[in-house]
Amino acid sequence: MKKNLRLAREASGSEQMVVVKAGAYGHGLEEVARALTGQDIAFFGVANVGEARRIRNAGVEKPIYLLGPTWAAEREEIVARGWTACLSSMEEARHFNGLAAAAGKRIQVHLAVDTGMGRGGFLTGQLPGLMHALEPLKQLEIEGVGSHLPSADEDPDFTRTQVATFHEILETLGGAQRFKWRHLLNSAGLLDYPRGACNLARPGLMLYGVSPLPARQQQLANVMTLKSRITLLRTLPAGHGVSYGRQFVTTKPTCVATVGIGYGDGYPRHLSGQGADVWIRGQRCPVLGRVTMDQIMVDVSMIPDAAEGDEVEVMGAHIPASEIAQKAGTIAWEIFTGITPRVARQYHGG
Ligand SMILES: *Cc1c(COP(=O)(O)O)cnc(C)c1O
Predict the structure, then answer these.
(1) Which of 257, 256, 255, 254 is closest to 229 using CA atoms?
(2) Atom of ligand 1 nearest to the CA of 205
(3) What was the pLDDT predicted at 349?
């Protein structure tokens, strides 16, 4: 991860908010936060207060930023523990201001502005006069302003317009220098677009070794390897069905390995019949038939010395998460976050 963080820093030319929501994209929230505490990181970005608590309970004291709107009942804790929220409405702003006053403190908040994501933030029409309206809320220090890109890896024209809009917004709000932090770019954004007046990037996926832009994939280090083992090895005769629904039937005697992983571990059932491969003894081996809850079957006819107990890389440096995602008809973000608690996590290095 540290190598990927370095690349994010270089490519964005700015400070980093390391996005660790959803259990650090399935990699383990506490472990990732601890592994990166020594790094120069401005914020950890989380989805909700549950994740913020877990970071603090892990003994990590870096600033925490809540990436989305907060529930009213959670705000007292946010104020008390000094986490940074982003505001999407005057109502939220007033509520935070009142809670901060009650706690006898001044708190740092960011403004979220909606430049096209449609998920949160002030709408552009609400921005003229906003700073003036916030002026009386003396307990709030408006320390930053951020927006989010919905299509940085899909629609360059729209994204360029969005970047320009964000800069116009900074002017509407009184100029970039008025805010300590200006942030817009996610992984695809920072890899492909100039930062302009932004001084903070919010990478997620790329830190976990997957580039949303295939052209930049080579520069990233693989982070997660999902492994299992061959639990059974048999030669099935010609004409023998494999797995539920018998969608695959052998046409010749076939050496079939049963591997102890399935959709109950987060290996997507949607990979069934989609030409997925696994990696055994330095070779790609095709998955046969449907993915079951706990097991898959793999053709190992091309590996004469395959043996029960052999390690199987289901996803990792040789079988990229992006390939799994594409064959399963989804995105790498969902593959990572879908790996279930049944999979034992082991951590090496950083
Ligand atoms: C998840 C998220 C990110 C990180 O996005 P990646 O595409 O994984 O880099 C950045 N900003 C916000 C607001 C997010 O919700």
Answers:
(1) 257
(2) 8
(3) 77
